[in-house]
């Protein structure tokens, strides 16, 4: 009787080990990134969505006050609306869907910064004034794509920020003026 239980226990313990050894030898996980700049992934032309990218140089050329000015001037399909009379609190509309800092607007654009969602948990609002334009390395505007989740009906704005590993250098600007 004891040997029977001992054989049952040994066989029960050896089954998961054998299954793990067999599954790790046969399965292979391949991860495809949406952008070619990541080193691994597909070319933007091979993704089933429209992708429009702005580099940091394209953002800085306009000398706009915010990132929103560059999106409005350079990305097809983006328009701004100023409902409160404040240039910082503008609504970004892309293909009929909005990302707004104001509660009560129907939000349909997801905003990501280095893969982390910036939309607030309550109401999906986006605080555009909290995003430093000088720290942005690249901005990608995606049309609707299920990769970005259910709340990204109209698309997503993905901000890739500068860091000390890929971007090294310094910038300075000087302004002057005379009054009278």
Q: Please name the fourth-level CATH homologous superfamily of the domain at 48-161.
A: TonB-dependent receptor, plug domain
The major beta sheet can be summarized as: 5 strands, mixed
CATH class of the domain at 48-161: Mainly Beta
CATH topology of the domain at 48-161: Ferric Hydroxamate Uptake Protein, Chain A, domain 1
Helix content: 10-25%
Mean pLDDT across residues: 76
What is the radius of gyration computed over CA atoms, rounded to a whole number of angstroms? 24 Å
Count the helices. How many? Answer: 3
By DSSP, the count of extended strands is 8
CATH architecture of the domain at 48-161: Beta Complex
Strand order of the largest sheet: 1-7-8-5-6
Spans of at least 5 consecutive residues whose pLDDT stays below 50 are 31-40
Shape: extended
Structural class: alpha+beta
Ends distance: 106 Å
Hey, roughly how much beta strand do the residues contain?
Answer: 15-25%
What is the H/E string? Answer: HEHHEEEEEEE
Keywords:
3 helices, three-stranded antiparallel β-sheet, alpha+beta, 8 strands, extended
What does this structure look like?
The protein has 180 residues and is an alpha+beta fold. It has a domain at 48-161: Beta Complex (Ferric Hydroxamate Uptake Protein, Chain A, domain 1). The chain is 22% helix and 21% strand. It is built from three helices and eight strands. The protein has helices at 2-26, 56-61, 67-74, and strands at 51-55, 78-81, 91-94, 97-99, 109-113, 116-117, 136-143, 155-161. It has a five-stranded mixed sheet with strand order 1-7-8-5-6. A three-stranded antiparallel sheet has the order 2-3-4, covered by helices on one side. A hairpin with a 2-residue loop joins strand 5 (109-113) and strand 6. The chain is extended and about 105 Å long. Mean pLDDT is 76; it is low at 31-40.
